[in-house]
Design brief:
With 211 residues, the chain is mainly β. It has one domain. The protein contains one helix and 13 strands; from the N terminus they run E-H-E-E-E-E-E-E-E-E-E-E-E-E. It has a six-stranded mixed sheet with strand order 3-9-10-11-12-13, with no helix packed on it. The protein is globular. 41% of the residues are buried.
Length: 211
């Protein structure tokens, strides 16, 4: 996505916009407490509608997904090799994936506003402003979260902030780590955590919850 920070931010006041820019990068921050709202609405040239995705039909591992050494002991999870999910082009080699259903899109970028997930269908996360605008009504907005250090920010989007041209699914039962963030794909949804493992979010058709 070109020039994410130039995106139009729909906030009640300019102070909240400033808070987003200065407050999301602190490693000392904790999970979003739901007291402020953030709606990111930006247009990436050539990105098209967020809904134009492939829809994998199952959690069967793709042939080119290789297990990565060191799965969490006793977790029953398989560590995916992050190198299998690196995207070129506008994603600058960041890890990116979709859920097996194609509903949730995630990116584990190293730059601010490049890590997180969004879903085509999900509840509105507590603290997110999903009112939309005349140009981008609420029905067009996707729901999800930004990750930045230990901060989890609920957000709504009018375009594919975390989309990848490869559209590669992370199978159910697989976990992947890059740039300190870890995401796990389960039938119940995608769970991502911050570097400490103490904060993160769950995102699915039924749930959009920060912790």
């Amino acid at each position: 996505m070109k020039n994410t920070l130039s995106a139009t931010v729909l906030l009640a006041t300019g102070l909240l916009a400033a808070a987003l820019i200065t407050g999301c990068g602190s490693d000392d921050d904790h999970a979003h407490d739901g007291t402020s709202t953030v709606t990111v609405t930006s247009v990436a040239p050539g990105s098209g509608a967020f809904g134009t995705t492939g829809t994998p039909e199952s959690g069967t591992p793709p042939a080119d997904v290789s297990p990565h050494p060191g799965p969490p002991a006793g977790s029953g999870l398989i560590n995916a090799n992050p190198d299998d999910y690196r995207s070129g082009g506008s994603l600058d080699g960041d890890v990116a994936f979709v859920s097996p259903t194609g509903n949730v899109w995630c990116r584990l970028g190293k730059e601010q506003y490049t890590a997180g997930c969004q879903a085509k269908t999900a509840p509105i996360p507590a603290g997110a402003d999903c009112r939309g605008s005349a140009e981008y009504p609420a029905s067009m907005l996707t729901r999800g979260f930004f990750l930045s250090g230990e901060t989890v920010t609920p957000s709504c989007f009018n375009q594919g902030v975390f989309t990848s041209p490869e559209r590669k699914p992370l199978p159910y039962g697989y976990t992947i780590t890059d740039n300190g963030y870890t995401c796990t794909s389960r039938e119940s949804g995608v769970t991502c955590t911050t570097p400490s493992g103490e904060h993160g979010f769950v995102l699915s058709m039924q749930e959009a919850r920060a912790f």
